[in-house]
Specification:
about 400 residues, alpha/beta, eight-stranded parallel sheet, 14 helices, globular, binds beta-L-rhamnopyranose, binds manganese (II) ion
Length: about 400
Amino acid sequence: MKAQEAALGTLKMQRIELPSWAFGNSGTRFKVFRQPGVPRDTVEKVNDAAQVHKFTGVAPTVALHIPWDKVDDWAGLVQHAADQGVGLGTINANTFQDDDYRLGSVCHPDARVRQKAVDHLLECIDIMDATGSRDLKLWFADGTNYPGQDDIRARQDRLAESLAIVYQRLGPNQRMVLEYKLFEPAFYTTDVPDWGTALVHCLTLGDKAKVVVDTGHHAPGTNIEFIVASLLRAGRLGGFDFNSRFYADDDLMVGAADPFQLFRIMFEVVKADALKPDAAVSYMLDQSHNIEPKIAGQIRSVMNVQEATAKALLVDGDALANAQRAGDVLGANAVFMDAYNTDVRPLLVAVRAALGLDEDPLAAFTRSGYADRVIRERVGGEQAGWGA
Ligand code: RM4
Ligand code: MN
């Protein structure tokens, strides 16, 4: 009972960040299915994100992607978000959708293109100044497709030089968070393919540089919780991009493909006491809802993170430590699995009650009529896609 009460307190304070692009149309490279009622601009994306927070109570910030979400009046957007009960979060840079970036951005062989990419990243920090955002998220599509295409080490040097310029520009309360990805769009080499490469660059840059773990960016079978534990130990875990994968960077709803993996990851987070706001680890979703409704898809994802967190919080730490010390392999595993196999849905109902929310966020959202209303209202104009 005590454990449940403690878990309830922590779950009430949990914070999950939503990606603006989850609310726009998205798809595969084969087809983008358009959905009615999809936002047409950043303001409408923020409105949709605010619905997720309204019904879950734990998703009060929305991450933006630049230039997709660029607006003329940042102060106006900050105010609009506040009026909806949310804030603006991480600023995600985009150096992958310009013809100049065919051979890369910050690692490009041509100094002119590298400068263009760096200028974009500096502009993102200007935007952070205006929005009050803490984190600049960097994911680079840089890499090569063919052996011999470019010099692997020289590309690392260019990356380090570019990152150093951007790092210097960060304000005292701003951070740079560097995301790695195994492959795609480059297939032979990727310039930031793994947490080792990301960490090496962050360690060289300084304390304000941290690594982002996108759960979809690993080879099949990778032990992601080991990476999380190692980065936490090094004080270099900046945050997560949560999603689910069956094959590669599937961007499916977090906790859908392998809820046990999400539990194992959240257990490492809980062990390191890294759920607290001052632990400065951000918990962001990075998903696209290609065939399912988007706001409901985000609500479901938030609930999945909450369930994994609740289970992780219920692991009996003393019993586990005792079993580990005694070398009791099966006993330790049983303690772990007991928590995973606990039905935490009643606990989350209690969390929602304590927050003054409906116990069933998805049903409450449906009942609110918001989805039907925006389908009626959002006619005309160009519906936002993941790239706009
Ligand atoms: C990348 C990566 C980034 C995201 C882009 C759209 O694969 O996950 O975080 O911003 O996709
Ligand atoms: Mn990501």
